[in-house]
UniProtKB/TrEMBL annotation:
Organism: Winogradskya humida
The organism's place on the tree of life at top rank: Bacteria
Designated name of the protein: Metal-dependent phosphohydrolase, HD subdomain protein
Pfam families assigned: HD
Residues of the HD domain: 22-99
């Protein structure tokens, strides 16, 4: 079984019934990963697997810490997922910034942020996909997150602080697509 097939099975088993909107989101993020494959070369399969699994930590049965990137990473470790996949899920979408705000950055520390093309592309996929799984612009996604959580929520503070880093990752991903002659469609 391919890594991508395995990832879809795990994601569907954990998210589809208890969190159908989250399941729609991760499917949209995974679809976006296919369009960004040219930015990551031989790591396209890893990107798509990380995209469909990035929010697995939201599954009610998997919650350990209440911080979904960390809970997803712990779960993936427990099922012997590839190390890079575990680390990408742990650090998706600038998770370290939110972990610091929550006071749990030490728990995230054992997971490495690879800071490369796959990481950037995963962040780009997530932050250009709506909660319902449809494509969107980064600025609109940030606005949606702020509106959903409200002005006083920790997640709003996080997204405001992370916006420059997230935007830079998205920019690098588009630049990699451009310089490699790859095309992506929204």
């Amino acid at each position: 079984m391919s890594l991508v097939t395995w990832a879809y099975e795990i994601s569907e088993q954990t998210l589809a019934v208890p969190l159908p909107r989250r399941w729609a989101h991760v499917q949209g993020v995974a679809l976006k990963a296919r369009t960004f494959a040219g930015a990551v070369g031989d790591d396209a399969e890893l990107l798509e697997a990380a995209a469909v699994l990035h929010d697995v930590g939201y599954a009610p049965d998997l919650a350990r810490t209440g911080f979904h990137p960390l809970d997803g990473a712990y779960f993936l470790q427990s099922v012997d997922a590839p190390r890079r996949l575990v680390h990408l899920v742990a650090h998706h979408s600038c998770a370290i910034r939110e972990a610091r705000l929550r006071g749990i950055n030490e728990e995230l520390a054992p997971f490495l942020d690879e800071e490369g093309p796959v990481r950037d592309a995963l962040w780009a996929c997530d932050l250009t996909t709506t909660p319902d799984g449809t494509p969107t612009e980064f600025v609109d996604r940030v606005a949606e997150i702020k509106a959903r959580y409200g002005p006083d929520d920790l997640v709003t503070t996080f997204i405001e602080e992370a916006t420059p880093d997230l935007g830079a990752a998205i920019g690098r991903t588009y630049e990699r697509l451009r310089t490699r002659g790859a095309h992506q469609s929204m």
